[in-house]
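## retry 2 of 3
previous attempt timed out at serialization; input unchanged, resubmitting
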Amino acid sequence: EVQLVESGGGLVQPGGSLRLSCAASGFAFSSYDMRWYRQAPGKERELVATITTSGGNTNYADSVKGRFTISRDNSKNMVYLQMNSLKPEDTAVYYCNRFNGLRVGAYWGQGTQVTVSS
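## retry succeeded, writing output
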């Protein structure tokens, strides 16, 4: 079965950094683009970043461009999100998921909470 286990979240002050990890299993990891999403209280889930199958291309939401970096290690079935210069508006539960070019995977993990507050 598909498993997506996010970790690395926590409480950080504005301007701080955090590195999120996502351990994936149960599917052909290297055959899928991978994405990070986030969902803030009272808001819809939004796409944060995408990385292609071999890591050759990345895309970011305008709100995080220049601050966040998505990466992956296909030998370990891992995807990462390095978050720098964090802002209070980055506060959300962060999720990873696979993407086949048309739709995101149906299974969602538990997510990891990121709280940016002074």
